[in-house]
Amino acid sequence: MTTRAAVLVESGRPAPYAESRPLEVAELRLDPPGPGELLVRVGAAGLCHSDLSVINGSRRRPLPMALGHEAAGEVVEAGEGSGFAPGDRVVLAFVPACGECERCVSGRPALCGPGAAANGAGTLLGGGRRFAHADGTRPHHHLGVSAFSEYTVVSAKSAVRVDADLPMEIAALFGCAVLTGAGAALYSANIVPGDTVAVFGLGGVGLAALLAARAAGAARIVAVDVVDHKRDLALRLGASGAVAGGPDAVEAVRELTGGGAEKVIDTTGVAAVLAQAYAATRAGGTTVTVGLPDPSAPLTLPALSLVAEERTLRGSYLGSSVPRRDVPRFVGMYRSGVLPVDALLSHRLTLSEVNAGFDRLAAGDAVRQVITF
Fold first, then answer.
1. Which residue range or ranges hold the Enoyl reductase (ER) domain (predicted)?
2. Residue 314 confidence (pLDDT)
């Protein structure tokens, strides 16, 4: 069969992307799913900073690549032994956890070794690539998902079944923004009732973390961002206070939290902001980072504070979550009204608007944009 997909042909092209067009919408051949794989009709796919980091070249991936890693869709064909059936609605997670390696069996599927190796190589978990141009060139897969495509083939290990009445554009958010943000708040930071919390960066992931912190009973939540309308949205979603990002942010957070927050989450992917988030954390507190800085960016911290103040600095990938456990959990929280993630959806796009969408994301003018098919 064939599918239209947005293929990243070159990283590092200059913005505006609507003019330089690093993503080309092309008609590709798509091979059928093999054993343990699924052919999925994509219903909606979100635009994320992790995609942008590949486009701008700060995260090197093999090219060309059929981009996109946050999606929901419907199974069209199920390979032998997949455990799914045609008609199943699924959310796609961006780490295809094998379920058998040491990290998977210890309850940390986000760190799956074979999954990470496949993602780095731009292949599916079972090996190989399923997309092809007419000339036989095979674009790589993006994190096992390649969501910016009408159809995609994925490992069944990437899929989590959800109810058919969950709108696709909402379901897609659970594949990255919600798993990463809410997971960081509930699992990595372990926010409990009464905690004071600060969130640096108010995109889809940061606002999902804010919503989860509120659901966990945080006593005070301070939201930090350079963009006015994102701070306004954070206040509407339950933040106790909002602070403009910049050189004065640390002191403002410390003032609003009585000397620093107990749990601070950085979602920006900027090393200098992570250092601010650490500085805004009180003694005995925990700083969690989920952003992906440029690999060459150094982080400088007062080393003594880790011991003398019993501080914790923790990385969080995929929110330290377990997709097959947590997608249903977070969907349940959404349905009950305690995790209103529909508020994160700021723009709906067509596939042909994908480059312009990344201009909007890079400018900070969007929370979560979703391509609908």
1. 18-371
2. 98
